[in-house]
Recover the amino acids of this structure.
């Protein structure tokens, strides 16, 4: 594992067809969904519904997520590897599927892109 510079992610393809297939695993989401996605990524089992004490911790978790989001100004683009609920997905609902970008069976993440930086925030189920 230490020899693999991409670990735990799979090495992205360099050919055009492979790159198109890789991009097809990412779905753009609106800025309004990003806070809930970030909170979901910070929960056990990547599920808000199974997070013990979530009601008490929700405001604090959302505050932290908004701090991360503030790094990306209006006009930034956001992508995730889970298809979830139409144009404005609610990541507090159970997420039941993903297209893994890593060497693990399940992983969810956020790819945030602005003119100045790229953010990659990911959660892995390495069980």
């Amino acid at each position: 594992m230490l020899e693999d510079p991409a670990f735990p992610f799979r090495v992205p393809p360099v050919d055009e067809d492979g790159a198109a297939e890789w991009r097809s695993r990412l779905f753009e989401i609106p800025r309004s969904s990003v806070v809930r996605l970030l909170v979901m990524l910070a929960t056990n089992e990547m599920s808000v519904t199974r997070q013990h004490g979530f009601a008490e911790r929700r405001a604090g978790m959302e505050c932290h997520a908004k701090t991360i989001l503030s790094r990306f100004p209006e006009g930034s683009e956001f992508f995730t590897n889970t298809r979830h609920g139409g144009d404005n997905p609610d990541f507090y609902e159970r997420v039941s599927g993903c297209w893994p970008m890593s060497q693990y069976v399940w992983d969810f993440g956020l790819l945030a892109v602005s003119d100045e930086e790229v953010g990659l925030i990911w959660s892995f189920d390495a069980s």
Remarks:
- The CA atoms of residues 64 and 70 lie 10 Å apart.
- The beta strands are 27-29, 77-80, 106-113, 118-125.
